[in-house]
Design goal:
Blueprint (H helix, E strand, L loop, with lengths): L3 H12 L3 H11 L9 E6 L2 E7 L4 E6 L6 H16 L3 E6 H6 L1 H12 L1
Parallel strand pairs: 3-4
Antiparallel strand pairs: 1-2, 2-3
Length: 114
């Protein structure tokens, strides 16, 4: 169970979602009737997952410009390994990609979900 502090932080992250996160969330919510329930900014193992479907073991991250820097990319790789060890697959999309090509992003997500 996440700590009270983690729950408060997750709520703050949801309230301050970026435009790409809001746009992707709109798409992910349409998958609920198909049995794919995503959560936003879910605390898990010390991380806040942008979007996660626990049933499908799928994490989706929206990466801003800072993720292109070597130090941040290394942190992301560690996080992805931790999640993989827990049985999750992580899909990463650039924020600009979500804004300019949501259809392509949606196709990748749907292909992964089967």
């Amino acid at each position: 169970m996440p700590s009270h502090t983690a729950i408060i932080r997750a709520r703050d992250l949801r309230r301050s979602a970026s435009p790409p996160e809001i746009r992707l969330w709109g798409f992910l919510r349409t998958l609920r009737p198909e049995g794919h329930h995503f959560r936003r900014q879910a605390p898990f193992r010390g991380y806040f997952l942008d979007f996660v479907c626990f049933a499908d073991r799928l994490v989706i991250e929206v990466d801003g410009a800072s993720h292109g820097f070597e130090a941040r990319a290394a942190q992301d790789a560690v996080r992805d390994r931790v999640l993989a060890d827990e049985g999750f697959e992580t899909l990463r999309f650039l924020a600009v990609e979500v804004l300019e090509n949501l259809e392509g992003v949606a196709l990748v997500v749907r292909e992964r979900l089967g």
